[in-house]
Amino acid sequence: MKLATTITYLLVALTASVAAWTADDWTQRTVVTLNTSTAGIATQETLNSVAVPVRLHSGNFDFSSARPDGSDLWVMAGDNKTPLQFWIERFDGVNELGVVWVLVPSVLPGTDKNTVYVYSGDKKPPAAASVSSSVTAIADAATLAAFHFADKDGVATDQTGALKSTAAVPPEPNGLIGQSAKLTGTPLVWPAGDRLKIAPGASFTVAFWIKPDAADGTLFKQGALTVALAAGKLTISMGASAVDAGLVAPGTWTQIAVTGGAGKLSAFVNGAPAGTGLLPADAAVAGELRVGEGFHGLLDELDIATVARSADRVRLDYAAQSADAKLLATRTETAETASAGGTSYFGVLFKSLTPDAWAIIVILMVMFFIAVAVMVTKFLYVRRTEKANERFIALFRGASDVMKVDAGTDPVLLKDSSLHRLYKAGLAELIKRNVGQASGRLSGASMDAVKAAVDADSVREGYSLNAAMVLLTIAISGGPFLGLLGTVIGVMITFASIAAAGDVNVNAIAPGIAAALLATVAGLSVAIPSLFGYNYLASRIKTISSDMQIFIDEFVTRVAETYGDA
Description:
The chain is of the alpha+beta class. The protein folds into three domains: about 1-140 and about 320-345, no CATH class; about 145-305, Sandwich (Jelly Rolls); about 345-565, no CATH class. Helix content is about 40%, strand content about 25%. It contains ten helices and 21 strands. It has helices at about 1-15, 310-320, 335-340, 345-350, 355-400, 410-415, 420-430, 445-465, 470-500, 505-565, and strands at about 30-35, 45-55, 75, 85-90, 95-105, 115-120, 145, 170, 180-185, 190, 205-215, 215-220, 225-230, 235-240, 240-245, 255-260, 265-270, 270-280, 290-295, 295-305, 330-335. The strands form four sheets. Strands 7, 8, 9, 11, 16, 17, 18 and 20 form an eight-stranded antiparallel sheet that branches. A hairpin with a 2-residue loop joins strand 13 (about 225-230) and strand 14. Helix 5 (about 355-400) runs parallel beside helix 10 (about 505-565), helix 7 (about 420-430) runs parallel beside helix 10 and helix 8 runs antiparallel to helix 10. The longest helix is centred in the last third of the chain and has 58 residues, at about 505-565. The protein is rod-shaped, with a radius of gyration of 39 Å. The chain starts with a helix and ends with a helix. Mean pLDDT is about 85; it is low at about 1-20 and about 125-130.
């Protein structure tokens, strides 16, 4: 199987040009940058064969364009020609979370140009998927064992599959990177063997992550090397030599690394030096390996190597595995945005929207179009009414007989006039009372009745003028609240997914939060135009209503002067 994988890898390397970044081959790629400059995690040496976990989430990867199991993933070096070994520890298309370990051949110091490309959505499926055949390829030659604790049966197996714990351990699905081991005082044990053996005085590195519930227990014990916690105090001992490495806080992930070489025993906590001591020449790291005896908490990423890793390498491993934003930066490109020379920020935000946020934004879009329709319709209605009123009031004031204002006038010109409709209502009341005939005179009570009839029509005209204005008030008050609801739900989902992934990288949080804020932007985009439109229309409607009231008083006064009782 290994031979077939190697042959396939070589064939792929010879034909790597098929993975060129074109829309015909792939639909998207995630650009992963390791920044080793002073602005990132500064290193002073070139580091070779570094295993880096790339966390995929909705902010840097479009899961809808990839296969459900991630089998179409393809990883390339920064030259965009060299395929890299990788292993998929986790790929959950439903919850949009993934972890892909990539073996980066070389990480140069002092630069932000260390780049890796993760392609997906292949349109021409190559045989390259076999490059990610197993975890065995995700380690350098100096690694004796690397335990990721991602085994489904709970038995802790190293990267070669040769070393297995004697008993299963309950897994914790949401661990440091993917799945972690959950220890409850019973140790994980690997039998003694030649494979897991470091001779006396030889160089070595032991590194692992813990998240203690209580700060006590023997974290690592093999031969002369013991790493233990007592009341939160971390101690590394090897033979007669002991190093006090400081305190470890419970409830948080902490990386512990121990190196030995050139007569020196060194301890590192979270990538930083924590103490040194003498390395006994006669002390060996051999025999049965016991991890987590008396320890309660989570354990992940146990690595044992036959070289003393440098301080730069320990610091880089810590930053990479903790997803430190200073070291790791990710972004998604589609073939279209790459060919255009950039990535659309709004495109990233829209891709990061959750279904519930989309539902609220769609509702807000409907509200927006309704509000615009109301504003446009109302504006045209008000404008026609005002122009027709101007024409009618000129006729009314120029007529000598209040009963004959319409004489010789085209009714079409006045059909939109609210004043003309009030006049017609008043005229109808006058005709019913025989006003304008020889005997037709109005008493005081009749005048009140005519005015009441015209007032009633004025109220109905007010209803017509204000019709549908309530839709604008709903948009003004309801739009921001709906948008805020979408934002709150989006933020909740983002933090829940981050908690599930165990990824506190700002690159994982920022796209989800920014996308959630789009709902608030949508709500304000509905409310602000509606507010301006409502205030403008309300002032115009108020003017028309005032004109109607003035006209009623003027109409009644003229009727009383001409046809009232003496």
